Amino acid sequence: MNTSVPYIPDNAPFSPEQRAWLNGLLASMFPAAPVSGLAPSGKRVAVLYASQSGTAEGLARKLVKELKAQGHTTALSTMVGYTPAALAAESYALILASTYGDGEAPEGVQPFFEQLCLEHFPCMEKLRYSVFALGDRHYEHFCKFGADLDAKLRSLGANPICMRVDGDVDVDEPFAEWKAAVSAQLNKNDSHLRTVEALTSASSTAGGEQHNSNGNGALSHRQETRFSRENPLQAELLERRKLTAEASTKATLHLAFSTEGGQLKYEAGDAFGVVPTNDPNLVAEILQQLRFNGNEEVPKSNTASTTLHDALLHSVQITRLGRKLVQEYAKRGDCQPLLAILAPEKQAELEKYVSERGLVDLLSEFPGVVDDPADLVRMLPRMTPRLYSISSSPAAHKGEIHATVAVVRYFSNDRERGGVCSTLLADRTSPSDRLPIYIQPNKKFRLPSDPNSPMIMIGPGTGIAPFRGFLHERRALGHKGCNWLFFGERSASSDFLYREELESMLTDGHITRLDTAFSRDQDHKVYVQDRMMEHSRTFWQWLQEGASIYVCGDASRMAKDVHASILKIAAKEGRMSSEGAEEYVAHLKEHHRYHRDVY
Ligand SMILES: Cc1cc2nc3c(=O)[nH]c(=O)nc-3n(C[C@H](O)[C@H](O)[C@H](O)COP(=O)(O)OP(=O)(O)OC[C@H]3O[C@@H](n4cnc5c(N)ncnc54)[C@H](O)[C@@H]3O)c2cc1C
Ligand SMILES: NC(=O)c1ccc[n+]([C@@H]2O[C@H](COP(=O)([O-])OP(=O)(O)OC[C@H]3O[C@@H](n4cnc5c(N)ncnc54)[C@H](OP(=O)(O)O)[C@@H]3O)[C@@H](O)[C@H]2O)c1
Ligand SMILES: Cc1cc2nc3c(=O)[nH]c(=O)nc-3n(C[C@H](O)[C@H](O)[C@H](O)COP(=O)(O)O)c2cc1C
């Protein structure tokens, strides 16, 4: 039976900040209420999620259902807009947190963590909590945000009721393990509820010695996806064509893969991962520098081994250097110039050094450091799959998955270089070849559920990809909602991706408005956000009519500038203060009307 502790539900008309603040207040006003109203061991449990593409959120919702069935009262909340004060007022919190960027918090969650790290933040001794961290072992900082959060809470005096579990992409098994441990603890009477501080302090200092799950590849990542990064599908490349003209200063490709008889299932808005291989010429050059023949045996995992050639081709990154690798290499070879730039005050020099070089440069500038092939493989960062927003529609492009890929090529430290995966797709794969791919669902980037709802899509460069998918999907499903697309690229004559398709959709009225910004066609830069501002009144009207905003493409500059322009439009056309505009945009997010897929 549930208690009558008041709680502001998810759908109440408040911003996330307001809701979190009110819930914190209520939690602190009714601390004793749960005990009498619940089943013997029933507790009020806050379930918090820090999620970007929806996995942690989905698991949090499942957890809530199960906790309710066990007689607990639950309070589900995103950590976007959540405050440490609200958390401090809870007695029990279960936190599901994924990691993004370079070991960072998912979008919108960083402010919570920053506040938590403020020196004057009060202690959390009243709080009992546990963290389920979601991540991907192929990233250098596996599950780092969940681990940081766990460590910070513990340092503030909060008591772990259960050890943190770090889940790799095959998340079901570690999640079940964590859930079982958490439930067992919560379902004990308070007097029997043990904290596991002693256990966790040992594991946390080891930085990743928790109950990690590396999955075994045989398990499905999510129920609807049989194929995963560990177990990708060898899909045939059906088509590849250049979307940019020969005269262009860049190359962007359209690629079509087979779903292999519908084995790969996806929804418009999802991405897919490609498990890439390095350039064999670069691998040969490295072997020559090292004077190895490639047949040397190196470990592949804890139990299996492979050849050095195979590992350099498939398992490790050879085109990127990181601090860890440079540090180990420098120490091992006593490379004084490298040791000098590893000093903390030389961070900028180190960044410049690594951004211009790969393994070949390190080996040629400081030869003779590596004598054991296995050591080399161990030092190098793991190869990570590359994700691509799907640019097709499952309803319109049956049996196919499309991608829109910008080929990464640049010149640095005296040589031409290329991105691993984009050059694999551009140069080292031909139609009818097969590549290992899998679907990466993006549950937070979906068409509006109302087919008549208007959409504003902002997608410069390869950011057009999911919008091509959305437009085809809406047409195939007969959705009548209006579609406004902002597209930007360098030049109209050479870089207008999918021009014919988009113009024909504009002509027949499927695209209601198409605004383009060709940045290099005049002497000053013009970007998509300039077009948004030129049409700010109409943009605002669309929002008043219930339009949802979607942004896709470059995260480092474009998405931030577009976000600032949305705030400006709200302030100008909605006659709001800057705080009012912030609240308005937070409200759009909260009501699933502002979505971003940025990288
Ligand atoms: C969710 C998501 C969706 C994505 N969707 C798309 C998409 O639809 N289309 C698309 O094209 N990409 C997309 N990407 C990006 C894509 O995953 C890859 O990151 C991209 O293709 C580059 O991979 P790569 O292996 O070719 O290059 P990498 O081998 O990963 O090399 C890229 C690195 O090269 C370096 N570099 C690049 N240019 C320079 C330069 N000028 N000077 C010095 N160093 C440089 C940088 O360190 C950069 O990080 C998406 C990413 C995510 C996370
Ligand atoms: N880190 C970098 O420096 C860098 C640079 C380029 C691309 N990339 C990455 O390369 C990938 C592919 O890029 P892409 O082909 O999709 O195209 P893109 O490089 O994102 O460019 C598409 C269009 O966006 C413009 N643009 C640049 N800055 C912008 C801003 N602040 N606001 C709005 N528009 C802006 C570009 O103009 P101009 O180019 O004329 O300024 C161009 O017209 C992306 O992952 C992107 O993040 C990174
Ligand atoms: C762009 C990007 C960056 C990521 N960075 C990391 C990382 O640094 N460390 C890590 O362990 N996982 C990283 N991941 C993996 C995610 O944490 C993982 O896919 C997680 O299941 C996503 O959860 P969510 O769907 O709740 O956002 C990254 C994923 C993406 C797409």
Features:
single chain, alpha/beta, 6-stranded parallel sheet, 6-stranded antiparallel sheet, 23 helices, binds flavin-adenine dinucleotide, binds NADP nicotinamide-adenine-dinucleotide phosphate, binds flavin mononucleotide
Put the structure in a nutshell.
With 599 residues, the protein is an alpha/beta fold.
Structure characterization notes:
This protein is of the alpha/beta class. Helices cover 37% and strands 19% of the residues. It has 23 helices and 21 strands. Mean pLDDT is 88; it is low at 1-5, 31-39 and 191-225. Flavin mononucleotide (FMN) binds next to helix 3.
SSE layout:
Elements: H1 16-29, H2 33-37, E1 44-50, H3 55-69, E2 73-78, H4 84-88, E3 92-98, H5 110-116, E4 128-134, H6 144-155, E5 159-160, E6 165-167, H7 172-186, H8 197-205, E7 233-242, E8 252-258, E9 271-274, H9 280-290, E10 297-299, E11 305-307, H10 308-315, H11 323-333, H12 336-341, H13 347-355, H14 359-365, H15 373-379, E12 386-389, E13 400-406, E14 409-412, E15 415-418, H16 420-427, E16 434-440, E17 455-458, H17 465-477, E18 483-489, H18 492-495, H19 499-507, E19 513-518, H20 528-534, H21 536-544, E20 548-553, H22 558-573, H23 578-590, E21 594-598
The structure holds flavin-adenine dinucleotide, NADP nicotinamide-adenine-dinucleotide phosphate (NAP) and flavin mononucleotide (FMN).
